[in-house]
Amino acid sequence: MHDPIRASRRGLLGIARLTLGIGLGLLTPLAARADAAPAPPTAAEAQKFVEAAEARLRTLAVDTQRASWVQETFITYDTEVLTAQANEKLIAAGVELAKEASRWNGVALPPELARKLSLLKNGLTLAAPSDPQKTAELSRLAASLDSMYGAGKYCPNGPSGACLDFDALEQTLEKSRDPKALLDAWVGWHTISPPMREPYSRLVTLANEGARELGYADTGAMWRAKYDMPPDAFAAELDRLWGQVQPLYVALHCYVRGKLNEKYGSSLVPLDQPIPAHLLGNMWAQEWQNIYDVVAPPQTEPGYDLTQRLVAKNTTPVG
């Protein structure tokens, strides 16, 4: 869900079409309207639709990012509500346009136009249900969860003592080599998550409902459909690629585990068990560069600390 990580998405295009349709209908005899079949969609109509959709989504996206920036900078109930309202408009528009884009399924279109329609249908991060109340609820949940994450703090000595935010805890994981301090920082940060379980579960339920309305099995299938192939084909391709890199990854994993075993001993890093996440220098154990000093091969060039070099030259933030 971070790098968020954040998503909610309506305009005058539908109203204009409705008004135009009513106006033209008033000029058509009733019998003719009853018998006439709707004209098939054309590439020219698709081009106009895409241009209007892009302009509409661009405006909504900018509004959403502005609200999100304010919320991230000043985490309050009011900024959370403003972000939820902006996200709600963006998500609703995205779902509406995704459904309307399916009108051109099977129509011969120029490749770039077909690609844009495909992105409209597959570009959602969260698909809200068509029920406006559920769309609003989904947006509120997404904004609330983002605020809970951003404002999360670990208070080692209880609420009355000093509390540590994510940046401080991450610094511990990056720089400390004390296994007790590392474990305390890792476990401490994860204490913010239990209150998020129930709202996150509800958010998943609503997002899956919206994805099913768009024709996907669930949100995961909707995400896997973004890669120019059916969701199941993408999963199979991912398995194939993983099979190619797995031997290298396993060898690298075993090497790093061996080095950490030398540093911390078998009681903390058994050679037949997964590596403890808190020892890898990253809150999500997703990269190992912060423990390079521990795991680097012998006689390896240690590199340099860019921050130290900038400080030594008295470099200012603007510089």
Description:
The protein has about 325 residues and is an all-alpha fold. Among the domains are: about 15-150, no CATH class; about 245-310, no CATH class. The chain has 13 helices and two strands. It has a two-stranded antiparallel sheet. Helix 4 crosses helix 6 (about 130-150) and helix 6 packs antiparallel against helix 9. It is globular, with a radius of gyration of 26 Å.
The low-confidence parts are 1-33
What pattern of helices and strands is seen along the backbone? HHHHHHEEHHHHHHH
> Rg to the nearest angstrom?
26 Å
Structural class estimated from helices and strands: mainly alpha
Compute the number of helices: 13
- Summarize model confidence as the mean pLDDT: 85
> Strand fraction band?
under 5%
Question: Any key phrases for this structure?
Answer:
319 residues, mainly alpha, two-stranded antiparallel sheet, 13 helices, globular, disordered N terminus
